[in-house]
Amino acid sequence: MVNPIRSEIDLEAQGLHVGYLRLPHSVHRSAYGWIPIPIGSVRNGEGPVVLLMAGNHGDEYEGQVLVSQLLREIDPQWIHGQLIFLPMANFPAAEAGTRTSPLDGGNLNRTFPGNPLGTPTEMIADYIENTLLARAQYLVDLHSGGSSLLYHGANMLAIEPRDEEEGRQLRALLGAFGLPRAFLHAPNPVHSATAARRQGAMSIVTELGGAGVVQRGLLHEARQGLLHLLGAIGVLAGPLVPPQPPGQTRFYRVSAQHYVYAYERGVYEPLADLGEHVHAGQPAARIHFPETPLREPLTVAFAASGEVVCQRAVASVQRGDCLFHLAEPDEP
Q1: Which of 24, 35, 226, 308 is spaced 20 to 30 Å from 209 by Cα?
Q2: Strand, coil or helix: what is 167?
């Protein structure tokens, strides 16, 4: 099956090229229309190919700013290989400022490997995995907490390595990025990181703040880390590459027990702070019921011990909403 998405730029061409991926989209307003997904490429000679992706979720803005900024600033003569820029990967969601696409409700990071003949989000996922990642050795997918979550500072995520050698390579890449925390987690077949692994590429996913805003300090920290990583990979040289990463990375592991969820609809009151170390059984939050004022609030407890790395940014909750995300230190 051939994906109907067509690129306006030639990914084999040397130099800087910017255009759109055209996703055919016939609607009442525009019978022969297409969805414009921005894409850029900077290629110079032989070397690694890196896909820099943001806007996987449309309400996560730090990556969209960072990828667009680097595309404007990088001179092709500094490149040894190729950088592919995808600042608004799920364009319909990014244009609307929503986590999922308003066209089909699709969550791009729950849709890989996609379907070339499916919904718009499924077609985008298929194109990213089977066209863009198929030519790349590295993926950097820039996420944040979005509208509903707030992460503690700048963080990275990566799939647990399959062997010792891959583990050494992965930890070296994460250390070169140099954000404060790196979470190792089990592979999920519908995530971009697993799509990269299926195509033989190594991946780093970030989680930068959130709450629907862009924090100046986090953006600067992520930029420095990304530029240092690209220098360490060998795809970028020149004046933009900092002499060292922004900091030293600590490694953590994450499992299903590290998440806390609401089991009632109401207003949640957090009982722990970002960065706090908590233990299993410790109260995590109270769910209040203002519409039934005589009803006592429901207390929710942590099921595991660890550091609070993420919490819900919105007080109103429904059953199934994530309230907290913990991570457990895992130093080698």
Answers
A1: 35
A2: helix
Q: How confident is the model at residue 179 (pLDDT cuts 50, 70, 90)?
A: very high
User: pLDDT value at position 36?
Assistant: 98
Going by C-beta distance under 8 Å and a sequence separation of 6 or more, which residues neighbour residue 67? Answer: 52, 53, 54, 85, 86, 87, 142
The answer for residues whose C-beta is within 8 angstroms of residue 293's C-beta and 6 or more apart is none
String of DSSP letters for 14-52? SEEEEEEEEEE---SS-TT-EEEEEEEEEEESSS-EEEE
The domain defined by 258-329 folds into: OB fold (Dihydrolipoamide Acetyltransferase, E2P) (2.40.50)
- CA distances 79 to 47, 237, 281, Å, are 9, 6, 51
Nearest to 34 by CA among 16, 44, 22, 45: 22
Which amino acid type is present at position 183? F
The pLDDT confidence band at residue 330, using thresholds 50, 70 and 90, is confident
- Give 232-259 pLDDT, tens digit per residue: 999 999 999 999 999 999 999 999 999 9
Residue 324, both tokens = 């907290």
- Please report, for residues 205, 279, 281, the alpha-carbon distance to residue 297 in angstroms, rounded to integers and kept in the order given: 37, 21, 17
Backbone angles phi, psi at 194, to 5 degrees: -75, -35
Q: Could you tell me if 92 and 175 are in contact, meaning their C-beta atoms sit under 8 angstroms apart?
A: no
Residue ranges of the chain assigned to CATH 2.40.50.100: 258-329
Half-sphere exposure of 80 (CA within 13 A, CB side): 10
Tracing tokens 């730029």 back to the chain, one arrives at: 9
Q: Where in the sequence of the chain do the CATH 3.40.630.10 domains occur?
A: 6-253
The predicted pLDDT at position 332 comes to: 53
